[in-house]
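Reopening this one. Same input as before:
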Amino acid sequence: MNSFKIAFKLLKNNMKIYGLYFLVLVVTVATYYNFTAIQYNEIFVQLSERLQSAVVASAASGFVLICTVVFFMWHANGFFLKQRQKETGLYMLMGISTSKIGKVFAIENILIGGLSLLAGLFTGILFSKFFFMLLSEAMLLENEIPFSFSVEAIIQIIIVFGIIFVVLGIKNYRVVKKMQLIHMLNAAKGKPSPPNFSYKKGILGILLIAAGYVVALNFKPWGLDLLLSTMAILILVSLGTYLFFGSSMTIILGKLSKSKKIIYKGVRLVSISNIFFRLKSNYRSLAMTAILTAATVTAFSVSLSFKQFEKNHEITESPYSLSFETSSPETKDNVIEAIQNSNHKLKGINSIQFFVGQVDYVSSKQDVDLNNEAIVTSYSQMEKTLEFLDYGNKKTILNDIKPKRNEAAFILNANSMASPIYVVGEDINLAGKKLTISEYTQVPFTGNVEEYGKKNVYVLNGSDYEALKGNSSEITLNGVNITNEEGSKELVNKIRDIVPGGAEKVNGLHQDFIWEYYALGPFFFLGLIMSIVFMLATFSTIYFKILSDAFSDKDQYSILKKVGMSKKEVQKSVYLQVGIAFLLPVILGILHSVVAMKMLEQIMNVKFTLPILSGIGLFIIVMIVFYTSISKSYTKTVYEE
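Same output, byte for byte:
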C-alpha cells in the first residue's frame, strides 16, 4: 500500500478527532472567500464610490482572519502530532522508517487541507448571494446584487491556503522524521517539569500591559497618531500577555502552591498542581486564548457599536424633517399654516437660539474651527433640543455637558465623524471672554444644514451666554418634524416662498450623508462575521488544549481513583482545573477588550457602554455553556468506569 492510500485510510479513521478542526477550516475558507470576493466583484464596486469602504473593510478582515487561522492550525496540528506519538512508535516497531511515517502524516495533513478547501469554497460560493444581500442591506443599498462567483478570489484562496497546508505538511514530515522510538513509547509517561521563575519577565509583562492600557486611554489627550498608537498598543499588550502567562502566572501559582491554607483544601492540590506544572508547555496557548478572547469580544462589541453610532449619527445629521431660519412669529405661523394645509401632519417644532462667534484657542495649535467661527448657544437650548428629539441616554449626556461659569462644552459639528481633535481642558477666547473646555461629545443640534452643518457648537452656562449674546446677532432656527417626511419636497418649496430669503434659510430633509457614514454598514456586518470566526477559533484553541491535558492526566486520575478518589471529587477537581484554565485568559481578554472599546469611544466621541456590556455578556454566556460541556468531556476521559 503506497503512502497516499495509507494517509487516506488514516484520515478516514481519524475523522472523528478531526471533526472540530475540519469545521473551523471550512467556515474560515468560506468566510475568506466572501471577504475576497468583495474586492473582485465589479458590479458591487461600481454601484457607488462609497463601497470602497466595504472593499477596505473586507481586505482588513481577511488579513486578520488569515493571521488567526494560521496560529489556530499550527496549534491544532501540534496537538494532533502529540496525541499520535504512541501510534508513531508502533509504526516504528513494525519497521516502518520515520521518513515514510512523516511522509504519510504530511500527505494526511494536505488531504484534510484539500478537503476543507473544497468544502469551504463550495459553502462560500453557495452562500455568497446571501452574504452580498446582507452586506448591501447593511450599507443601505437599493440595488440588487446578482449571483456570481469570482475566479480571482478562488485562485487567491487556493494559493494562500495551499501554502499554509503545504508548510504544515512539511513541518509534520520534519518533526516525525526526527522522532526516536524510545521517546514515542514513553510519550504518555513523560512528566512535565516545573516552570522557571523569572521575576523580571513577570513584572515586565504586567508593566507592558499597563503601558498599553495607558496609551490606549490617553492617546487622544496626548495628541498621538492613531495608526502608530494602535500598532504600539497591539505590540505592548500582546507581548505583555505572552510574558504574563509565561512568567507572572508562574510566580502567582508558585506562591499559591506553597500556601497550605489554599492548596490543602478539597481537591485544590491536584488542580492547581496540574496547571502549575503545565505552564511551561501551555502558557503560549493561554496567552493566545486571552488574545483571541479580546478579539472576539471586541469584534462583536465594535459591530454593535457601529450599529448604534449609525443610528445616532443619522439623527445628528438630520434631526428634523425640515428647518427654517426666522425670528418672526408671523412667518412661523404662516409656515405652520402651510404644513396644516398640506398632506403632512405637524409632529412638533423646536425653536433654538444661538449666535455665530469668533473662537481662538489660547495655546493649542490644532485646527479646530473652520475660519475660527463656531455656533455658541446656552445649555438650556441644548437641553430643550435633546428633550424634543428624545435623544437616547439624554440624561447622562446632559449631565456630562452641563457647564459651570467660565466653562464651555464642545459639541463636534454634524458634518464630521471620528475627529482626531481633543480639546478638553483647553482655554479659549470666545467673543472676547476666556473659557475652559469642560467636555467633548457629538449630539444633534442644527443638523448638517448648508450654513451651520460644518460649525462646531460651544455650549455655555446660561449667565455666560446672556452676557455674550448682546455683542452678536442672535439666530433662531426652527426644526420641524412632520409625517411622511420623505415626500416633503413640495412642502419645502412652498415654505421657501414664505420665509424671507427662503432659498438659503430653508432646509429640507438632509439625505446626502458624508461618505464615512456608509463605512459603518460593512464594519457592522463584517464585525459580526469576524466575531463568529474568532469565537470558533477561541473555543477550538481551548478545546485542543484541555483535551490534550485530559489525555495526559488519564494515568494520574486512574491512580487517584484506585486510592479512593470518588467520581464526584474527580469532577470537582476537573471543574476547578478547567475553570482556572478558562477563567484567567478570559478575564484578561475581556479586560483587553474593554480598553480597546474605550479607545474606540475616544475616536468616535460616543459612549458605547451598552454594546460593551452586550458583547461581554453574550461571550460569557456562550463560554459557560462551552465550559460545562468540555468539563464533562474531560471527566469522562480521565474517569472511565
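So the earlier flakiness isn't reproducible anymore. For the record, The first strand starts at residue 322 and ends at 325.
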